[in-house]
Amino acid sequence: MTDHPYKSLPDKAFWRRSVARPAFSAVDPVGEFSLKIEKDTKVATAGSCFAQHVARHLAQSGFNYFVVEEGHPILRGPVRAAHNYGTFSARYGNIYTARQLRQLMDRAYGRFTPAEAAWTDPDGTVRDPFRPTIQPGNFASVAEMEVDRAQHFAAVRRMFEELDVFVFTLGLTECWESLEDGAVFPLCPGVEGGDFDPAKYAFRNQGVAEIVEDMNAFIEALRAVNPTAQMIVTVSPVPLMATATEGAHVLSATTYSKSVLRVAADMLTQQHDFVHYFPSFEIITGPHARGAYYADDLRNVTEAGVNHVMRLLLKHATGTIVEAPEDKASTKAAPVKAADRPATAPDADEDDSLAAARAFVEVECDEAALDRS
Amino acid sequence: MTKSKLLILGNSHSEALPRDPIDGYDLEIHWLKTKDNAKFGTMTLPEAREKAASLTANDTLVLMHLGALHNIYGLLNHDVPYGVLLDDGTRVGPEDAQIIPVSSIRAVFQNKFESDKVVPAIKEATRAQVVHVMPPPPKEEIPERFRNKGGDYHGRGIAEFGFAPADLRLALWRIEESALSSFLGKLGIMHYAAPAETLTATGFLAPDFYANDATHANAAFGKQLMDAIVRLSKSRAYI
């Protein structure tokens, strides 16, 4: 019997042994993952909707989820979460594309200022075109939006400069850009604010080379301000909500988009030893799961799917072994907001400043009964 | 001629209202005791609901319960200084403070209003027309002597915090007023803020109407407020 290269390969190299045979929650497609995260490692997150799950689980798992834009302490409970503080490390909202990430870096450091003006809703309130859903109720004025944006960029700079590990989930290849200066938007103008004008905006579907170029530009800028920063790159398993590719079916467009992102991610890991790929895409979409990790809408990921991803991330990056949950086929989508302390009682979320103010006001109110004149 | 009833279910701010008889009205004023451990108060919520239920559609019920959040959030300087931007772009609050978007502060207030059980319970219990009156706007100048009153809170005296800048206190009162008006509107309750004649040109409580503390108005304000309440009741403007 002749010898051959496959004879010495580990089980993970074989489909039947590592994908078809194990219980689906036990499938572990992580080949090699050399990055180690300690309890005090500052882990920052950005990306598409799926990245919100990573952020939420990191926060809940006792790791140092690095949040630089937590919102003022008076914004507690459901308001804090609803206003997107803590959803990601800074309040940038979803960053779907590599171009958007590169643009965030360049804008935060003043190297690029898009020409696009603020978007004004019919009620006179104002949206940031580059974070159009970040502020429920919108900003009261352009000036308020600009002040908030300046505070946001200061937080983003701090995040890039102080983080240890940056987790970025590549979500989409399709985006809309300004014809004036190439600035890209997270949402097509007109969908959530703004007015769509074909003379001002154009559709762009990024290819592998463009994504790798954008990511490399970002990585170079990140390492320039933080030479020891490490990166984890993942690909979101969440399919496209809709495609604007002419004549395309959304399923084919999703396959294209995810394929391009997956190839780009691999190229980045080959080019940089500090960029690590984590296969959350494979964990959710692989045949072993038989689609069970998708909710009823066949798009959002269930909590069981997110748990599988996070269990493997914690195992490989931290050495923490978390028991696999039962293979319950829940079709409920995982929540997409960062965990937050619920407001169990009206006064339960007060800090010292508010408690002192309340005590002072209550004393004054009591005194009003004694001091009636 | 049958008199209409004017029932006022108030709080510490209703102590400034006159108790004198009013032509055409049977006036009753109570301080709602909304917490079991409250030191003051003359009527519990179940008693208030019962009283409210006894009113007819020709009567007027005035609630003075919500609207003090601007003081909780903004009377004293916060450990993490913050400010807001006014519509004209003016920055109010401590210098270099973090600016919080107005809609975020408004959401904090709305969230608190929505957890209130008193106002909906009273409204649901009565057929009378219901008006809610907010605490008076802030005082531009708060006498220094009030900084040292009241002892320590969490081991820190009021002087250590200090009173917040007047323009921020007024901005918060206005945000709360707007949020409260919207909240009450959904419940079918009219919102009333303060008699115009008791305010300065910039919207603060005028010094002639200061009570002897940092947050309350005096009996002269109470007289003006009662006149306004009676005018509203007679005009039924809020129906």
What does this structure look like?
The complex is a heterodimer of chains A (373) and B (239). Chain A has ten helices and nine strands. Chain A is an alpha/beta fold. Chain A has two domains: 9-342, no CATH class; 344-373. Chain A starts with 14 loop residues before the first helix and ends with a helix. The relative contact order of chain A is 0.15. In chain B, strand 5 (82-85) and strand 6 (91-92) form a beta hairpin. Chain B is globular and about 60 Å long. Chain B has seven helices and eleven strands. Chain B has a six-stranded parallel β-sheet with strand order 3-2-1-4-8-11. The chains are: A alpha/beta (373), B alpha/beta (239). Chains A and B meet through helix 3, helix 5 and helix 10 of A and helix 2, strand 7 and helix 3 of B. Chain A: Residues 325-351 are annotated as: Disordered. Chain A: Pfam families: GSCFA. Chain A: It comes from Pararhodobacter marinus. Chain A: Residues 42-311 form the GSCFA domain.
Question: Notable features of this structure?
Answer:
heterodimer; A: 373 residues; alpha/beta; 2 domains; four-stranded parallel β-sheet; three-stranded antiparallel β-sheet; 9 strands; B: 239 residues; Rossmann fold; six-stranded parallel β-sheet; three-stranded mixed β-sheet; 7 helices; 11 strands; GSCFA (chain A); GSCFA domain-containing protein (chain A)
